[in-house]
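Milestone 3.1: sequence recovery, worked example.
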């Protein structure tokens, strides 16, 4: 494996970690107004992700930084093409982050309800836009021979990409509901279990529709065949098993299954792209690859050394954080 391939894989791992961890954050935010009937319950829901949400977002920042350093042409083309969508996402994430910090600064109900709305609005918007972005990467974008994106914001929106966005929202909401069955107690836990059971079917239906549309719209059938591989098949099977596990009280296994589905989805997307990083819908020869979009070998070597030294430290620290705050939260103690 050369360094170009290595960093393509590492960026895929970073995005998989981001969607796995930040995914349940988004899910809890989406479920906040539906599961939290009273202020103590809403506060407990916020506390369930309070110690984790900012650390989870670091995975996205690290993935973006690694993309910028390892594949600058990929970064430039993607971020220029998705510029307006990224601005909308950034505004939603800012509002969401500020809400986590500000909602408990004042005890007035109106104040807290306002920031709860910001948490809610700041959760499905980035989830939807991430789904749209990933669907566009699979479908292809109008990229010319100079690696420039030639479309507009509305070029990114199509029935296929919007379906990808809806599936992402549904999947991450299900992931968040299963996470809450592990983090909450009493009535909140039962509501989260009921929500997960209800969310499972629409998620499966959206997944089936998206998979069918993907085979009809993209080159997935040509590159991977009818069987997209063991990872993709087991990921789909894990999603199918989630409802049974939730109903039988196996929340930890259910959370592992939704998480594995997310990781398998990202792995399949990156496998479909490889060795491309962005597909040109104008001319396949204009697609960006891990070689045409990459930095110099010297840069990749230095990055590899730095990652080898510091990534284990960061992973150990985040793992320690999850261990320290592993206890369930209760609305009675909120």
């Amino acid at each position: 494996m050369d360094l170009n391939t290595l960093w393509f894989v590492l960026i895929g791992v970073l995005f998989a970690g981001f969607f796995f961890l930040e995914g349940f954050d988004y899910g809890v935010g989406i479920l906040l107004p539906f599961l939290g009937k009273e202020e103590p319950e809403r506060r407990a829901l916020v506390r369930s992700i309070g110690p984790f949400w900012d650390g989870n977002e670091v995975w996205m920042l690290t993935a973006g930084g690694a993309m910028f350093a390892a594949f600058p042409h990929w970064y430039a083309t993607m971020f220029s093409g998705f510029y307006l969508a990224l601005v909308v996402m950034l505004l939603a994430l800012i509002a969401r982050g500020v809400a986590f910090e500000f909602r408990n600064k004042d005890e007035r109900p109106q104040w807290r309800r306002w920031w709860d709305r910001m948490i809610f609005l700041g959760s499905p918007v980035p989830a939807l836009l991430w789904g749209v972005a990933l669907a566009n990467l699979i479908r292809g974008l109008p990229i010319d021979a100079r690696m420039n994106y030639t479309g507009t914001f509305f070029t990114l929106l199509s029935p296929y990409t919007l379906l990808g966005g809806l599936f992402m929202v549904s999947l991450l909401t299900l992931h968040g509901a299963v996470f809450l069955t592990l983090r909450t107690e009493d009535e909140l836990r039962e509501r989260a279990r009921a929500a997960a059971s209800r969310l499972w079917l629409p998620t499966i239906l959206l997944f089936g529709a998206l998979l069918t549309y993907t085979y009809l719209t993209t080159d997935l059938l040509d590159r991977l065949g009818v069987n997209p591989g063991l990872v993709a098949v087991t990921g789909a099977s894990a999603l199918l098993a989630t409802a049974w596990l939730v109903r039988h009280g196996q929340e930890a296994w259910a959370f592992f299954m939704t998480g594995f589905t997310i990781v398998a989805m990202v792995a399949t997307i990156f496998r479909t792209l490889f060795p491309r990083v962005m597909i040109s819908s104008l001319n396949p020869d204009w697609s960006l690859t891990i070689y045409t979009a990459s930095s110099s070998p010297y840069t990749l070597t230095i990055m590899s050394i730095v990652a080898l030294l510091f990534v284990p430290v960061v992973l150990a620290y985040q793992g320690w954080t999850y261990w320290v705050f592993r206890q369930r939260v209760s609305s009675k103690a909120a």
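Strands lie at 276-278, 288-289. The first strand starts at residue 276 and ends at 278.
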